[in-house]
Amino acid sequence: MGVTIKEIAVICGVSPGTVDRALNDRPGISEKTKAKIIEVARQLNYQPDYMARSLAKGRTMTIGVVLFDLYNRSFAQLMNSIEAECRRQGYFVDLVLTNKDPDNEKKCIEHLLHRKVDGIIIFAINYGEAFDHYLKSLNVPVVTVCNRVSGDWSYIGIDDRKAMKEAVQYICGKGYERFVYVCPPLSYRGKTNIFTQEERFAGCLEGLKECGIHEPPVIVTDKDYVGAIGRMSFGDGEPRTAIVCSCDIYALEVMNHLKGRGLRIPEDVGLMGFDNIDVLKYVTPALTTVEYDVEQFGLQAVRCAVEQIEQGSAAPVPLLPYRIIAGASI
């Protein structure tokens, strides 16, 4: 049987409450006493009794996370950040993946409720008044990430519309005349929650309008978006064209296709992504993209959830910052 907080308290000549403050990095204790307690705990290989803590607090110390999938590197980065911050705050993570299926999303939420999670962080697929009422019926704290459900829920995100508008204005400043916008999720408009993608598309249109580009962009929503790009002509004799992708993952596939055709980037065709996923450091030419701190998304989502769990409410989280990364592809 492992050593307990009470036993560490006796050895150190302090109260169990003081040991608890030291081990959980809480205020109200001197650095000298804290260092002594931590060293004794280390020597005795102290391991927290999470079951006892859960029973004492009336919580499972678990936060459920509902994501699309982990194919997109930005989701994988987000999940790593969520898990790290949960662990730092003494919570475990129960992850479920919806595969972008609205019915499966509700099944995933029900699974988390049966597991008695203390709160839920969700990148929602469902939307609308009925789903809003459904979330309210759960009686657990909910934090939404990227895809907004309604103003009744804590929301973590950036101003996607403004970010994409500024990205398009940046491209226009480079003298591009024709635009192709690649966003397969737009084919789900009116069917599922694609709030983030709709905002980015709206920003693209606003940016073009403000730059005086009257020709509408070619909008690619095909699942086989690379095939659609393959039927287009670029380079000699064609207007100077920029392909704007709503996510980096699409831009990387398009870049690979363009290179396979022997097209030069950006001489024959410009290319822009969005997200600045971590694998871009291996890509040539360096992709011009929009960056936001995905780790902050995870950190703020967890902090917001924990505040609601432990205090009953949470302060609104401001929209997070972003910036354009000027690569060599535009």
Automatic annotation (TrEMBL):
<dbReference type="Pfam" id="PF13377">
    <property type="entry name" value="Peripla_BP_3"/>
</dbReference>
<keyword id="KW-0805">Transcription regulation</keyword>
<protein>
    <submittedName>
        <fullName>Catabolite control protein A</fullName>
    </submittedName>
</protein>
<dbReference type="InterPro" id="IPR000843">
    <property type="entry name" value="HTH_LacI"/>
</dbReference>
<dbReference type="InterPro" id="IPR046335">
    <property type="entry name" value="LacI/GalR-like_sensor"/>
</dbReference>
<keyword id="KW-0238">DNA-binding</keyword>
<dbReference type="InterPro" id="IPR028082">
    <property type="entry name" value="Peripla_BP_I"/>
</dbReference>
<feature type="domain" description="HTH lacI-type">
    <location>
        <begin position="3"/>
        <end position="57"/>
    </location>
</feature>
<keyword id="KW-0804">Transcription</keyword>
<dbReference type="InterPro" id="IPR010982">
    <property type="entry name" value="Lambda_DNA-bd_dom_sf"/>
</dbReference>
<dbReference type="Pfam" id="PF00356">
    <property type="entry name" value="LacI"/>
</dbReference>
